[in-house]
Please model this.
Amino acid sequence: MEIEVLREDLVFGTRVAGHAVAGKSAMPILSGILLRTQDNGLELCATDLERAIRCRIPAQVRSAGSAVLHGQVLGQLVARLPSEERVSLSSVDGKVRLSCGPSVFELLTLPVDEFPEIPGPEGEPICTVNREALIQAIQQTAFAAVKATETTRLALTGVNLVFKEGSLKLAATNGYRLAVRQIPVEGLPEAATYNALIDAQIMQDLMRVLSGIGEEAVRVHLAEGQAHFSSGPVVFSSRLIQEEFPDFERVIPRDNDLGLFLPREEFLATLRRLEITAAEESGAVTLRADPATDTLEISSVSREKGMGSERIRLTKPPSRGIEVAFKAEYLIDALRRMKSDQVVLWLSAPDRAGLLEPAGDIAPEDQGFLYVCMPVRLL
Amino acid sequence: MDAFYAAVEVLDNPSLKGKPVIVGGLGPRGVVATASYEARRYGVRSAMPMAKARRLCPHGIFLPPRFERYEEVARAIRGILYGYTPLVEPISLDEAFLDLSGTERLHGPPERVAQEIHRRIPEETGLSCSVGLGPNKLVAKIVSDRAKPGGLLIVTPEEVQRFLDPLPVDVLWGIGPKTSQRLAQFGIRTVRDLREVELELLSSWFGPRTGEHLWRVARGLDDSPVVPSREAKSISQERTFPQDLFDPEEIRAEIRALALKVAERLRSHGLLAREVRIKVRWADFSTHTRQLRLPEPTDHAVLIAEAALFLLSRLEERKLGIRLLGVGVGELVPARFRPLHLFARDDLSQAILSLRERFGEDALRLGP
Model:
């Protein structure tokens, strides 16, 4: 292998592929990035067997070939290279010589033939999604999944992608709250339905990778237990979780009759203050709507820290009063990922799920977003 | 509870009623665990050597203790107590503190709760109990001891001093035989005597710490909190099988049954758990444990079973049979709150547990 690439292309490709390099693994080869020439380009590949990333950058190929370099070393090195325009890479005696202006490195390699085969997308994509919309949708849902340290049902560690009726719905839940965002897709036949479940952390990596590229469209492929997202020079592949995601549509309380309309930022700031004195263990704050004064009183009591309360003026008079407690963190999680000036919290009873939605002039980033949160019963 | 072990024996065998019943170790070095009030009339006391008890009360009924049965009855009693507050601090199998502050809205004033508990325990268990209500743990404990056997005594904050004054000093916490002997040398025999000694003098006799403690307890002052279920750092159920298990479906069914029992015990202790663990002992006695943390604390039978089954699925497969399975929970918190679940309804778990309570363990099992 003997090639020359632009330094900034190599920085980009290494950073993108770096998202799939295994941190600690029983298989040392997975800590590597595979470099292989392709026509007049270089492909950088990495995988931890759960996800795989391939990123193609332009290259002048003098002689074709491939090599696996240690991902962390390559990442650190290219980030600190002198600000020359070009970098050349060539295989020498089982090592890779990397030179950039005055600096020359001879990097040790890992055996190429041990690098796992990375399945790529084949045939036509099932649909195309706007990249920005997909990034927002992941950002507004993946957080709601069960944390990696709190694994229970494998299904709840994932983000459910439902391609249906010409749109894509992303949904994630930890069993106590549920985040859903619907975004439009192109090219999905009206009658076609696909369902995929992908680890929430992998989705967040996909989001980071997509944030770093300038393309407009992301093509989605689904095949044989794998999902592939390709956009411009990047193909991001993930294994699907082979479990059934719970029927989340069933638990969205669309019939809740009492709407509390609130200024989002004020609601968020108030919750962040009252979270400080939220009850230990439950983290609960109590919301009390008063139709006489059109206000929402939020209060919290902690045995160890004290108590606090604050009133917010509702932007629409509530139809009746209610008192209900929520874990402050769950409401904050959703509110801070929304952009609209107003939100509405639909309630029915103190032990029934609440539905949080954007309201008023809905920001484009919030179109199709909804959040379901179960209350905490205080005894 | 009054003469608890002996009372349970009488309950299970009514022909013992009115007879001196003594429960304890029957071997040559055994001691008395509990003596019925009839036996106490002969001078039999708990912790007394059994040989001496036999001498004092030769025609007594001497029985070995059946702790599992006592634990079962105690659980039913605790179940009644947890109906009023999660702040229940069991001191022993048959004795517990309850913090009734803040329960007025649900259950009415503490006086009424005390009366209700005093009425319900005999009604529902057939056993006699004594209830004492006081402004703090120190006073409540002394009040309930004075209420024995079978009484209900209420001492309001205004009455504390009048109630304590005539009692001997050794009813107070931290006053053992040695301290009370020294106090007696100074002519101090009753709580009132002690209350009339100035703090400086007490400190010069006993040092500043003990001095202050004596000064406070003489006034019925105590601010120690009711600590719910202090012994219960974790709860677990295990089962060793007569024959090693191989069938995966059978293994999962056992895990579910154990999880259900754990959920039952959480409910009866008024606790929620954040951590679930399993234990698997293979035929070669090698033992594996796995644990995980839940997003929210729970006592939900279905959620605990689900977590336990998930952990089981994470164990590497082996060709060996399984000789023991265990399901446990940790990171326990008092059930002062209940996070409601989107998919596992709370009333479902309660329904399962109450059906099992009414119709026995086989009435309802968790399916796959």
